[in-house]
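Practice set, problem 2.
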Amino acid sequence: MSKIVFLSDLHLSPTHGFFWPNFLTARAAADAAGAEAVVVCGDLCINGPDSDDEMTFAARALASFATPVLALPGNHDVGDEPPGQDPEQIIDGPRLARWDAAFGADRFVRDIGAWRLIGVNAQLFGSGLVREWEQDDWLASCLAGAADRRIALVLHKPLFIETADEGPANASSLTPAPRAKLLALLQAHGVAMVISGHLHARRDRVVAGLRHLWLPAIAFLGSASHGGVPGVDAVVMDFSGSEVVVEPLPMPRLEQHDLAALKQHGRYKFLRDMPPCPPEVT
């Protein structure tokens, strides 16, 4: 069995249940896919950086899968790397500890088919935290130990939007300095693919020999301004051959939520600011 289901950007909350029905549909489809594992590519929460309850809720939701789950954090889980989308939610030690208590790890390595999948915490790159350097050493070791397997890196944020040398720093992709360092490491080890979420849009292209795959979201549509196609969906990937085959995850159509409309076109800056509307959890 060489298939993995990829879900991204769930945005779950025990107080704001906008996207809970989409999650239930995706969970059922993922468990029916016969995959070896489900990878959740960040942003499990709406307000995870500042809420124990949200992190606990997301952890329980992922524990309800029949299929093994590998979860990576996003900016809505552990906070953003500087400068960040929200200056009040920058990644730090206590926020990482909250994730650790719920999920146990913020990275993984898994060999499947002809490939080695390496999942990392995107929010650490450029954070200046001790764990950033620990992850750097761990990543280098995982890359070096791949032997003859092809390598795919999995993380929440894309490395860049259009070009590897773009700037300035922004909240849509990795910041320039850590990006350049990471790209040099990936190139040195012949990494073939980078899989990311965050932008709630589909995009699949090769840049300088490296395939960059953006994942759709489970929660709400992204913006077309980044160059991808906004999407609320999920994918299943087959890693049995030298090229990864990517297909839509078979399931009923998810609700195509529009974030601006949901936040009443500027009335609320963040989803966490909205009046409570708890999910119907049985």
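Problem 2, part (b): a different protein.
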Amino acid sequence: MPILPIDTGRYGTVEMRRIFDEENRLQRMLEVEAALAWAHGEVGDIPKRDAEKIVERASTKHVRLSRVKEIEREIKHDVMALVRALAEACGPSGAYVHLGATSSDILDTATALQLKEAFNLIEKRLNDLERVLIRRAEQYKETMMMGRTHGQHALPTTLGFKFAVWMREVARHLQRLQDCGARLVVGKMSGAVGTQAGFGPHALKIQELTMKRLGIEPAEISTQIVQRDRYAEFICVLAIIASTLDNVATEIRELQRPEIGEVFEPFEVEKQVGSSTMPHKRNPMVCERICGLAKIMRSLVMPALENISTWHERDLTQSSTERFIIPEACILIDYMLVLMTNVLTGLQVDERRMLENMELTQGRMMSEAVMLALARKGTDRQEAHELVRGLAIKSDVEKRPFKEILVEKGTVRKMLSEREIGEALDPRNYLGTALKQVDLVVKKTKHERKARGLAD
């Protein structure tokens, strides 16, 4: 009976859930056993016809999950249950199944095969998200909006600039993912304590051949297990990605508040329900889901780090943990990336509301520009700051346009004409290098994508 939301299908994509389902896990373990038998055959440790038989029968078509579980219930050992089920399916050739190997040789190498699939899918999702952010950065490069610090109006910026910042964050995640990928996807045939004693004189060749057939690299050295710093690094990277998605989703949620009303996550107006009791509600439920799942993603970092520490050459303390955290981390980050890509693809933008919100402070958002205009005319910078601060407060208290307050202040008029005051108060004159920066980082990102072999 399904219990957790991943099991029920509520969270997770079909593609990523398939990688970690029981049937695929069994198939990957069988592939490792087959590759090991083939390697033994290649070096002459076992007859090639027996190796070929094991390779031919190492499939869930011949080794049923139900039979493996049946044996496991009896002997209480998952890998040995698989070994016995495969040996049964191979007839006399089954005598050579699992020759020289320990359980972790099969488990860790099968995990590497799953992680290779998951890694490629996560990388694709990041590339998809990056592409959407490029398009949005270009589309809204010149769309002015209020920049906010501490939740308060600060200086004008553009929506495209905001997208460009997120775009480069995603670009860094792709770099992080690629950096850890080579360290992550490794298998091994090292035996009970890592010395490969059970594989005989051809041990290193057997490991090399096995991994080559599986399409992964061998760990350069290991104990009974692949060292868990590899997995910990990967899950830390995924948690950092999740935190970026949390940040983006939080921004969209804030900007969707009715008091702000500048951007909105997609909403199917024909049939989507926002609330069971308040028909008017249009809740940012997808972004809230992303933020909630980010909490789970960050919580997986601690057990991943604690799994690095084991007794001597190996214990089982990391095994039970990893059965949860590796599939969960991959399934959730993949799902979150798909959700965020969909949100940004269908994001609704109210440019008129953005301009209206910029007028809420009646021009006071341009106080820095006025202060610097005074400084350029010879006013001491600190004195200009105090002067403009006082006038901004006066504008706020009296609820009068900032320009009126400035124009009627003799100290200001001695330094600035009314035209110069107007120019200082025009937000279009105070975007700095925002548009240029967007152009530069979009160009850089497109160049990186081209280097990764992507057409767009």
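Answer key, part (b): The chain has a mean pLDDT of 96. The radius of gyration is 30 Å.
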